[in-house]
Design goal:
Length: 190
């Protein structure tokens, strides 16, 4: 009887080992390719002298960290601030100056989310630190996450006060302090 128990224990241990290997292989197979698809967008909406405008960044990288079932665990986001396009060359040049993004000294912005939580009503919250223009602040970003058979899609936005990061003048009579950062991203599923 003892030999049957030993054999059963050995088989159970072997089965657990196989399941762990299979889980790791599946997780790797469903990892997101860090290369975003061509239709991915990252930008912001702001208001200057009562007129709303939208600007996008032509170069950015968003690298997700994924867990079981391709659920997001964290993100590393880097945005090249030189690559801004608001559809107005004069405005883009002004945003690059030291009064605004100061791209000569601070060429990129970075968000590192080390904790992601599911929201009961649907979607997720990414908790991390945003570094912009030499200032780092904690930020929580709401987003949706849709892992499909061919690609993973992520959409969301966050409201920020540009003054938290020393972007623009402290007064907001001509430029609204509130800025909406938005993203619409997709990665090919491997």
């Amino acid at each position: 009887m003892r030999s049957i128990i030993h054999v059963a224990d050995a088989m159970a241990a072997g089965l657990r080992h196989c399941v762990l290997i299979l889980w790791a292989a599946c997780a790797a197979a469903y990892a997101a390719d860090p290369t975003l698809t061509a239709g991915s967008r990252f930008g912001f909406r702001a208001v200057v002298e009562g007129e709303a405008f939208e600007a996008t960044f032509g170069r950015f990288a968003v690298t997700p960290s994924l867990g079981a079932q391709r659920r997001p665990l964290g993100f590393d986001v880097e945005v090249d601030l030189h690559a801004i396009d608001s559809g107005n060359a004069d405005r883009d040049a002004e945003m690059a100056t030291s009064a605004w993004f100061d791209v000569a000294r601070y060429p990129s912005a970075r968000f590192r989310a080390t904790r992601v939580e599911a929201v009961p009503a649907g979607g997720y919250l990414a908790h991390g630190d945003l570094s912009l223009k030499g200032v780092t602040r904690p930020v929580t970003v709401a987003f949706t996450w849709q892992p499909g058979p061919r690609q993973i899609e992520m959409r969301g936005q966050v409201e920020l006060d540009r003054r938290w990061f020393g972007v623009g003048a402290d007064e907001d009579s001509s430029v609204a302090a509130g800025v909406t950062v938005f993203f619409d991203l997709a990665w090919l599923a491997q």
